[in-house]
């Protein structure tokens, strides 16, 4: 290797870590505070009668913490944690937006609040509470939405995003969050990736708990790096013949999957050939996945790949590249675009759960929206 070539490599590495440092500084300055269990003593969340409330059940590989508002940290726990919270959604909420407090305590009249944190000491207690929530719903609505968050998330981030998503989709069932131990620091991308991979056995354990409930069925929705965890867990389940043996899994959706396209091909080769109910939401303008691609050797990420190329792998692609009204940026169009979040809600609440490749409800739902559905 020439001295000049070595010098170029050193310069690239320095530049890379400089960018990461800048991102980290900016993020640390702008990140909103954690707010689990932080109520407003002057204006308690329960006093805002116009607010709506979503009960979120939590399964997590994070370690519990006594830090005010944090609930669970970014450290990895050896056992699966089980909990629930209630999210108060302000009466002024606008679809696609997340009205999050920038200081404590939140004002529940205008901001989201997370109250009533509850920890379940046993699996039976968790299942009983989840069954209790299902029993309060009409028989046809007793479904579960199992949500997996992405990179750079605190427990507060993921709770709030799921609550906002459920509210805006008008999902009729019960939401369950799987929160893996993200460090919630942009400079710890590799830590997050390893945390996601380390969570695979506990993800399968959480899925088994859902199977033990009295839910009619479940949909799984994963975002960003959470899609990597989801796909790896499906591969593990397939290898032992334990994937969707009850037939109650209705669909699998992945929004902006942060997965190397070649790894994705490998994963798909190890699972059942019938991928009718596997949906991938993509966007070629996804800036976060552009950064991920640069730090991952220049290989395309699934969530920003060519729609036709993905469809050839047997999955259904929902291309959001032309959607430009997301209030949460290009990487979270699934929740930040009022049009998209309502479209997903129609799919989640439809009796045929997005239909089959030969008869996509999406094709009749989009009503002229700039969304492209591609299937093989």
Number of strands: 10
Q: Unreliable segments (pLDDT under 50, ≥5 consecutive)?
A: 6-29, 353-361
Spatial order of the strands forming the largest sheet = 3-2-1-5-4-6-7-8-9-10
Counting DSSP H or I runs of 4 or more residues, the number of helices is 12
Succession of helices and strands: HEEEHEHEHHEHEHEHHEHHHE
Q: How much of the residues is beta strand, in percent?
A: 15-25%
The chain-level structural class is: alpha/beta
Average residue pLDDT: 89
Q: Give helix % range.
A: 25-40%
What's the overall geometry? globular
For the record, give the distance between the C-alpha atoms at the N and C termini, rounded to a whole number.
46 Å
Structure, explained:
This protein is of the alpha/beta class. Helix 4 runs parallel beside helix 6 (225-239). The protein has helices spanning 3-30, 123-135, 155-169, 189-198, 200-211, 225-239, 261-269, 287-295, 307-311, 333-336, 338-349, 362-365, and strands spanning 52-64, 72-89, 113-119, 143-148, 174-179, 217-223, 249-255, 278-282, 316-319, 372-374. The chain is globular and about 55 Å long. It has a ten-stranded mixed β-sheet with strand order 3-2-1-5-4-6-7-8-9-10. Strand 4, helix 3 (155-169) and strand 5 form a beta-alpha-beta unit.
Keywords:
single chain; 376 residues; alpha/beta; 10-stranded mixed β-sheet; 12 helices; 10 strands; globular
Could you give a short description of this structure?
The protein is an alpha/beta fold and 376 residues long. The protein has helices at 3-30, 123-135, 155-169, 189-198, 200-211, 225-239, 261-269, 287-295, 307-311, 333-336, 338-349, 362-365; strands at residues 52-64, 72-89, 113-119, 143-148, 174-179, 217-223, 249-255, 278-282, 316-319, 372-374.
């Amino acid at each position: 290797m020439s001295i000049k070539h070595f010098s170029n490599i050193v310069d690239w590495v320095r530049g890379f870590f400089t960018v990461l440092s800048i991102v980290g500084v900016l993020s640390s300055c702008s990140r909103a505070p954690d707010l689990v269990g932080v109520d407003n003593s002057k204006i308690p969340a329960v006093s805002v009668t116009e607010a709506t409330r979503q009960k979120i059940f939590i399964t997590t590989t994070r370690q519990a913490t006594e830090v005010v508002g944090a609930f669970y940290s970014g450290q990895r726990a050896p056992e699966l944690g089980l909990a629930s919270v209630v999210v108060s959604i302000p009466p002024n909420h606008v679809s696609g937006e997340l009205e999050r407090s920038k200081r404590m305590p939140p004002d529940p009249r205008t901001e989201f609040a997370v109250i009533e944190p509850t920890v379940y000491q046993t699996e039976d207690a968790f299942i009983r509470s989840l069954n209790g929530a299902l029993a309060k719903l009409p028989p046809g609505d007793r479904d579960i939405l199992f949500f997996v968050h992405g990179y750079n998330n605190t427990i507060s981030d993921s709770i709030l995003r799921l609550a906002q998503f459920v509210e805006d989709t008008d999902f009729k069932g019960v939401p369950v969050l799987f929160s893996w131990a993200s460090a919630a620091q942009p400079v710890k991308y590799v830590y997050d990736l390893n945390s996601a991979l380390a969570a695979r056995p506990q993800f399968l354990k959480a899925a088994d708990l859902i199977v033990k409930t009295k839910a009619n069925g479940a949909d799984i929705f994963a975002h960003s790096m959470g899609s990597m965890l989801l796909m790896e867990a499906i591969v593990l389940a397939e290898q032992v013949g334990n994937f969707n043996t009850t037939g109650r899994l209705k669909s699998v959706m992945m929004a902006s999957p942060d997965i190397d396209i070649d790894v994705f091909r490998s994963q798909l080769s190890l699972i059942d050939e019938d991928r009718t109910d596997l949906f991938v939401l993509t966007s070629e303008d996804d800036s976060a996945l552009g950064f991920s691609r640069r730090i991952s050797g220049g290989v395309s990420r699934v969530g920003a790949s060519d729609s036709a190329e993905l469809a050839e792998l047997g999955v259904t692609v929902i291309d959001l590249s032309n959607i430009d009204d997301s209030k949460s940026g290009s990487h979270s169009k699934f929740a930040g675009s009022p049009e998209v979040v309502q479209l997903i809600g129609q799919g989640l609440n439809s009796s045929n759960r997005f239909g089959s490749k030969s008869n996509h409800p999406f094709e009749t739902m989009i009503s002229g929206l700039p969304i492209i559905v591609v299937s093989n």
